[in-house]
């Protein structure tokens, strides 16, 4: 049986690793949070007391960590993955991180003799639970093919993006577009309400009209309209404002590096940062809707 080590059992890592358990893999997991470990245990993941223990006997290692700094620490740090993983383990980073960090991980993994791919995902926690995520994978074609075999139980689509780091480049652009669509839903839902429209009637129209988007279908920020929306659950995070602000920041950084002006992305990045400044960093990113409302009431 193939042994998979999963590092980072949060909102995404938990349902993703659960799908590997269901597919018959022996999954060993590690997270710094005991609550995350306990939820993973309930899904059949064999949780371990340390990264070192989790890496024992790994054929494949997945990481699903918050930011570039966490991924760098997990791979490159003392007693990290490159130091402790079995030498023939295949390494797959599915976190969303900056391209520079992804390239640093590729280089270090290559120098240490490992096969590594950057394989970020899109589809949110609903796609993670359903096993329908889109994976965008950067790296050597042989490595991408090897990774795809183990990614299949979690994926609706697997797209090779080209050389090292291109998976992250695709993910950063995709998420920039997602947040702009989310801002459109935030402004649209408030304006529809203030114009006296019934939210269900308006959503039904937009969802079969030119206002449709993934954000509208999955994160529409009004309670009682879309089952998967955080709005139904007092904006408890499905995708936290902190992580969304990180991704919007990565897009702005890429814009600066390439000389591309991104005014819409800038606006939504400011609103996500405002959520953090106002103490809502752990809440869902769709709470930016409160800044679209003149009185802050949604
Ligand atoms: P999360 O914060 O819920 O989970 C991250 C987990 O990593 C936490 O449980 C944390 O304790 C753990 N962790 C941090 N450092 C660690 C370490 N050194 N060792 C072990 N565990 C460690 O975040 P998430 O929402 O699951 O997102 C994870 C990644 O996926 C992020 O890069 C995010 O941008 C990306 N992403 C999220 C979504 C979403 O909808 N939530 C969708 C697509 C991609």
From TrEMBL:
Molecular function terms from GO: 3-hydroxyisobutyrate dehydrogenase activity; NAD binding; NADP binding
InterPro entries documented for this protein: 6-PGluconate_DH-like_C_sf, 6PGD_dom2, 6PGDH_NADP-bd, HIBADH, HIBADH-like_NADP-bd, HIBADH-related, NAD(P)-bd_dom_sf
Entry superkingdom: Bacteria
SUPFAM superfamilies membership: 6-phosphogluconate dehydrogenase C-terminal domain-like (SSF48179), NAD(P)-binding Rossmann-fold domains (SSF51735)
Catalytic machinery residues: 171
6-phosphogluconate dehydrogenase NADP-binding domain: residues covered: 3-159
Pathway connected to this protein: Amino-acid degradation
Family classification: Belongs to the HIBADH-related family.
Protein name stated in the entry: 3-hydroxyisobutyrate dehydrogenase
Record lineage: Bacteria, Bacillati, Actinomycetota, Actinomycetes, Micrococcales
